Amino acid sequence: MHVSLRVTSRYSRKSLLLTPTPIKVRDSFTLTDGASLAVPPQRTAWKLCCVSRTIGAMLLSLPDETLLAVLAHLAPRELFNCRVVCRRLRDLSLHRSLWQAAVVKDKGLLRAALNLAPCLGKISPRLPLETIASFMPSTTCAVANLGITVHNESDAAQATIILLKLSALSGVRSLNLENRCPPGQSLSTLLNATHNVIGLRKLSIQNYSQESLSVAWCDLKTRPSLTKLLYSSNLSEPFLHLLLETHAATLQEMCLFCRNDQVGTLLAQIPNLRSLTCFPSNDLSHLAVLPDLQSIHVMSLSEAYPPGALEFLRGASNLRSVKITNNFSSEPALALAESPSASQIESLTITTILSETLALVVPVLCKFSSLTSLSMNSIEFDCVNFLRAMCWTSLPCLTTLKIPFPREICLHSWLHGPAVQGTLIRNPRLHIRDRTASTTAEDCSCQWCQWGCHELLRESDKPKAYASHSRGPECPADCYRVVLPTGPPSVAN
Ligand SMILES: [Zn+2]
Ligand SMILES: [Zn+2]
Ligand SMILES: [Zn+2]
Question: Where is the F-box domain (predicted)?
Fold first, then answer.
């Protein structure tokens, strides 16, 4: 007999009524072959126990595969509670699939999980390193995600114990290491252990100490495995250079928040690099040769882009998604408009402080003829002039425009204004999104709010993609038509 089970509840991860105590009850349980059991909240505890036993028996009649799908809705503590119900649940509740994404946040649960579970999704970084390290000698549980914060040499020693053991179990796929510890032998050992984690895919390192992370103790024979690397430091980092050299064959995605590091030459040796977020530096010019580099975010909050960074933007030929954050200059965007990539870029985000800077970019936006998404942002952004100045016919693929709406005017009234209406009518596929948090006041006296159209704009979770069309299959979920066939009488005339 094939039975499928659908569980409906307000409480997505509450107990399944299989636990002896305490009993928590779902709103209803429905077997899709017809049987249904609703549990009104006012029932007495005695009746709930009867219901509990009935549902427990129904669940236990299910095949393993279906029962595992139900158990997947339980939190780790509830899975352990299931183990005391019967022998079958004792075994099923330790099934690998139930623990691969499980997150453990307290000491007692961690001890049980490391002793019994075959694997764990994540150990909460709030748990003390000393506690986690104390469970390491006996565990065979593979942990996929690990977050470690090191304040001193003692922390570094505990973290090394954890990392060596979990690496030996070959389960660690993602590691986040935050260092506040000055250089010392334990920290060096920890860095070596970090460098040697077997099969690590994602590594995030934030160095907040006053000294660079050293490679003095690091084994140079580590096999490449990292696909994603995030590194943040205000110093020049030998450890970053080592990671780039070790994992050059596998790295695909990088976020480098390092001001003083000249890593462009090393980055140019990473053949599969697809996505890069970094500060602009002169040696970015080396990256123009990378064949797979399609997504880049270059951020500069204070300085101008150096010539090498501009040269990269001007010469890159394979970019598809570009974000430029630059406070005072239109130079980066103008350089990008000259690049061989310009006509292929599909997503472009430009953020500056001055609206005058953005105004200088508008005339060259026509070069980005494949854009599907454009986002422009600055303080005191001149929306009306921007929408009027845009050459819409040169951007035939554009479906999303994200700009900061003026905040001094009612959102509803702004959407009905000639600038937005004219733009949407000229571009039937376009959605305009708001980068600010514009609102429609409850008691707004504008003619549109008084007329009463577009009631949804008064909701707190109002739709945010405004269009001239009704929502279609390719539209975002919050697509909302704001162009009407007729307006209020005073406006229509
Ligand atoms: Zn209004
Ligand atoms: Zn309206
Ligand atoms: Zn739409």
Answer: 56-102
Q: What is the pTM of this model?
A: 0.80
Segments in 40-174 forming alpha helices (H): 45-60, 64-71, 76-82, 87-92, 96-99, 107-116, 129-134, 153-168
- Looking at the chain, the whole-number percentage of residues with pLDDT higher than 90 is 52
Closest ligand relative to 409 C-alpha: 1
- For the CA atoms of 199, 205, 207, 213, the dihedral, rounded to the nearest 10 degrees, stands at 30
Tokens of 150: 């090191």
Percent of the chain scored above 70 by pLDDT? Answer: 87
Give the Cα separation of 150 and 156 in Å (integer). 6
Q: Tell me the CA–centroid distance for residue 253 and ligand 3, in Å.
A: 31
Q: How many Å lie between the centroid of ligand 3 and the Cα of residue 433?
A: 11
Distance, first Cα to last Cα, the chain: 68
- For ligand 1, the distance from its centroid to the CA atom of residue 440, given in whole angstroms, is 6
Range of lowest pLDDT (33-37, 80-84, 339-343): 33-37
Tell me the residues surrounding ligand 1 (ion) with CB < 5 Å. 410, 412-413, 444, 446, 449
Closest CA to 454 of 467, 437, 435: 467
User: How far is ligand 1, taken at its centre, from the CA of residue 441, in Å?
Assistant: 7
Q: pLDDT digits over 374-420, tens only?
A: 999 988 888 899 999 888 999 999 999 999 998 888 999 999 999 99
Q: How many helices (H) and strands (E) does the chain have?
A: 19, 19
Whether 296 and 267 have beta carbons less than 8 Å apart is answered as: no
Mean pLDDT calculated for residue range 81-97: 86
How do strand 36-38 and strand 28-31 relate by DSSP bridges? Answer: antiparallel
What pLDDT was estimated at residue 49?
Answer: 54
Neighbour count for residue 119 (Cβ, 10 Å): 19
Check residues 227 and 223 and name the one with the higher pLDDT: 227
Interatomic CA distance for residues 210 and 29, integer angstroms: 57
* pLDDT at position 46 over 70: no
> 471 — phi, psi (to 5°)?
-60, 130
- Is the bond leading into 22 cis (omega within 30 degrees of zero)? yes
Distance 408 CA to ligand 1 centre (A): 11
